[in-house]
Design brief:
Function: Catalyzes the conversion of dihydroorotate to orotate with quinone as electron acceptor.
Protein name: Dihydroorotate dehydrogenase (quinone)
Number of domains: 1
CATH topology: TIM Barrel
Strand order of the largest sheet: 3-4-7-8-9-10-12-13
Radius of gyration: 19 Å
GO molecular function: dihydroorotate dehydrogenase (quinone) activity
Pfam families: DHO_dh (PF01180)
Number of strands: 13
InterPro entries: Aldolase_TIM, DHO_dehydrogenase, Dihydroorotate_DH_1_2, Dihydroorotate_DH_2, Dihydroorotate_DH_cat, Dihydroorotate_DH_CS
Length: 346
């Protein structure tokens, strides 16, 4: 139904307009008792073999919704109905910000990819907290946190600590995002010394809490092997819980879409099928280099159960989807879970 009816309709609209339309439709339809019940029945698929315990949390299944889809925690209960094992909100910043000028989200149907330069558009962490207080589902929620565009890198730690403090009672784990290509100079924080200082500060603030939460680091797919070696060292030295691999890429060499069209779009990070191989390579490298000493959440180019299995075999403990759901529809989650049950049983 999604591919034959809804997707063609959505793809006649601009990507960001379609995104907001989908949000409104989901919020409206899923909260009618009859429709909500039908959706739960249609997408429900749980199995004991899917359950996972990772960084001290018990997941009903290993399939999560990646950050960026529900930035402001507006659809947690509705997304939980689709069968996700966990949902990551954000990236959230201390102050609300509009993000980059529109248009800033683009489809590349030939590549089944997206280009975005959203720029951490969100209503601010305090607004998200008010929504989190009202959520009803028990799905695991991660809080992806970043810095405001106007905050200089030398004061970035303050922004991350502000978000940690605000969100701490309401999320199950945290993700430190220093890997978006759409906030000026943000990726400079991935360099060894700034990153170590940031993670040390965030972990210390978290450890001082009565109920510390797992702290993860989200990294870019564009890091060199030497930089990935530094990531392994920093994760082990700081004692954070794990890594999310990977964010969007600035590499466009694998795209089949007309080069002039891609150049006309301008700056932005690429997600979708073209990211699959590189994200898997990064997962495998980190897993082997660290000798499996920390969990990895694999994200990037997951469009099928086979793609998910590939990530797990490379060393991921959990996986996340986003672009795959845009192109394949929400039934992808159930298909992946069914495929994983068969895989785990073999």
């Amino acid at each position: 139904m999604y591919k034959t009816l809804l997707k063609p309709l959505l793809f006649t609209q601009s990507p960001e307009t379609a995104h907001h339309f989908t949000f409104s439709l989901t919020k409206f339809a899923f909260n009618f008792p009859l429709i909500g019940g039908i959706i739960r029945m249609a997408f429900r698929y749980e199995d004991k073999r899917l359950e996972r315990e990772v960084f001290g949390l018990k997941f009903k299944n290993p399939v999560g919704l990646a950050a960026g889809f529900d930035k402001d925690a507006k659809l947690i209960d509705e997304m939980a109905m689709l069968g996700f094992g966990f949902i990551e909100i954000g990236t959230l910043t201390p102050k609300p910000q509009e993000g980059n000028p529109k248009p800033r989200l683009f489809r590349l149907p030939q590549d089944e990819a997206l280009i975005n330069r959203m720029g951490f558009n969100n209503g601010g962490v305090l607004e998200a907290v008010e929504r989190l207080k009202k959520r009803k589902s028990d799905v695991i929620v991660g809080g992806n946190i970043g810095k405001n565009k106007v905050t200089p890198n030398e004061k970035a730690i303050d922004d991350y600590l502000f978000c940690l403090e605000a969100l701490h009672p309401y999320v199950d784990y945290f993700v430190v995002n220093v890997s978006s290509p759409n906030t000026p100079n943000l990726r400079d924080l991935q360099e060894k010394e700034p990153l170590k200082a940031l993670l040390t500060a965030v972990k210390a603030a978290n450890d001082a809490k009565q109920n510390p939460k797992p702290i993860l680091l989200k990294i870019a797919p564009d890091l060199t092997d030497g930089q990935l070696d530094d990531i392994v060292e920093i994760v082990q030295e700081t004692g954070i819980a794990g890594v999310i691999a990977t964010n969007t890429t600035i590499d466009r060499s694998q795209l089949q879409t007309n080069k002039n069209k891609v150049e006309a779009i301008g700056a932005g990070g690429v997600s979708g099928k073209v990211l699959k191989s590189r994200s898997t390579d990064v997962i495998r490298y980190l897993h082997q280099k660290s000798q499996g000493s920390f969990p990895i959440i694999g994200v990037g180019g997951i469009f099928s159960p086979e793609d998910a299995i590939e990530k797990l075999e490379a060393g991921a403990s959990l996986i996340q989807v986003y672009s795959g759901m845009i192109y394949e529809g929400p039934s992808l989650i159930k298909r992946i879970k069914k495929g994983l049950v068969t895989y785990f049983s073999s």
